[in-house]
């Protein structure tokens, strides 16, 4: 069986130092801010993430764009010309149409290279949830799973990915149609922090609301407590949108429950997801294997 390349994209937030240990290729999504189109790479070659959030705080309103078929086609063709197959773990179809562009590109490439194999899997995950699923997938690949075995593993375990988010500013959710203008005004006045998750279709859903940051973080951890009995065997991906203090607090809570420090990753929420949630977001994700 031919060698294959594991691909993800930059909606799947993961700490750069962890990415360096992974044998994956990441395709960049792009965002536009202040009339500039920027492809996002997690190593911050496109700019400092804190600067991005500071621009939002000053009133900038970025927009994101999905990867187009031509970009996918070039990436896929470069790999299959090298005699390798592809397994691409794609950003959830519940929040983006990017998977359709990937499928179109895959058809074009396999028409030209009939012996090539390009497997595209909907992750039904976003942000740090997508990042931790990609991390676990990479570990299984390193165990020696072939492309058929790894595809089957992902298709089973993608539904075990857990995403819990707290958002600081309701107005960013209003822009995306997740809450009404009235809810945003009242919630902000009362310091309400919405708690969100991702359902089995990969769609963002509001699960609860907490009054104040402390109670919101407590709620996130309480949901983890409901599922995890042995924290020492789980990999956790903690995300923050220029809110490192919140991430460090979540890490402290996990360590108190027996999680291993080397199994806890603190990742910045990149501009692709950050555009829609705004600064101050904190998140925790893991695959409940």
Mean pLDDT: 91
Major sheet: arrangement of strands = 10-9-8-13-11-12
What structural category do the secondary elements indicate?
Answer: alpha/beta
| H/I helix tally | 11
The CATH architecture name of the largest domain reads 3-Layer(aba) Sandwich
Q: Measure the end-to-end span.
A: 27 Å
Outline type: globular
Low-pLDDT regions: none
Q: How would you characterize the largest beta sheet?
A: 6 strands, mixed
- Computed over alpha carbons, the radius of gyration is 19 Å
Q: Structurally, how many domains make up the residues?
A: 2
Q: What name does CATH use for the topology of the largest domain?
A: Rossmann fold
User: What is the string of SSEs from the N terminus onward?
Assistant: EHEEEHEHEHEHHEHHEEHEHEHE
Keywords:
single chain, 289 residues, alpha/beta, Rossmann fold, Hypothetical Protein Tm841, Chain: A,domain 3, 6-stranded mixed β-sheet, 4-stranded parallel β-sheet, 13 strands, globular
How is this fold's topology laid out?
Elements: E1 4-9, H1 16-19, E2 25-27, E3 30-33, E4 36-39, H2 49-57, E5 63-65, H3 69-80, E6 85-90, H4 98-112, E7 118-122, H5 127-142, H6 147-157, E8 161-166, H7 170-175, H8 181-189, E9 192-198, E10 204-211, H9 213-227, E11 236-240, H10 244-256, E12 264-268, H11 271-277, E13 282-287
């Amino acid at each position: 069986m031919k060698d294959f390349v594991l691909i993800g994209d930059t909606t799947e937030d993961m700490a750069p130092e962890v990415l360096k240990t992974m044998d994956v290729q990441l395709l960049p999504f792009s965002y536009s801010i202040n009339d500039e189109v920027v492809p996002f790479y997690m190593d911050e070659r496109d700019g400092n993430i804190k600067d991005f959030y500071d621009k939002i705080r000053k009133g900038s309103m970025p927009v994101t764009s999905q990867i187009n078929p031509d970009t996918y086609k070039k990436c896929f063709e470069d790999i299959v010309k090298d005699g390798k197959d592809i397994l691409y773990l794609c950003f959830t179809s519940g929040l983006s149409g990017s998977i359709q562009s990937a499928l179109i590109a895959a058809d074009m490439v396999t028409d030209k290279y009939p012996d090539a194999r390009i497997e595209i899997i909907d992750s039904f995950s976003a942000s740090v949830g997508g990042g931790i699923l990609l991390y676990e997938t990479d570990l299984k690949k390193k165990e020696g799973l072939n492309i058929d075995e790894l595809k089957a593993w992902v298709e089973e375990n993608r539904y075990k990915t857990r995403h819990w988010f707290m958002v600081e500013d309701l107005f960013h959710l209003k822009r995306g149609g997740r809450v009404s203008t009235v809810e945003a005004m009242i919630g902000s006045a009362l310091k309400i922090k919405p708690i969100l998750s991702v359902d089995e279709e990969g769609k963002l859903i509001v699960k609860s609301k907490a009054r104040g940051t402390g109670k919101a973080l407590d709620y996130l951890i309480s949901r983890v407590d409901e599922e995890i009995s042995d924290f020492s065997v789980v990999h956790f991906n903690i995300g923050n949108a220029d809110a490192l203090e919140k991430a460090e607090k979540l890490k402290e809570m996990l360590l108190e429950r027996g999680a291993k420090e080397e199994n806890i990753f603190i990742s910045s929420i990149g501009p692709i997801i950050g555009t829609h949630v705004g600064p101050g977001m904190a998140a925790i994700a893991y695959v409940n294997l």
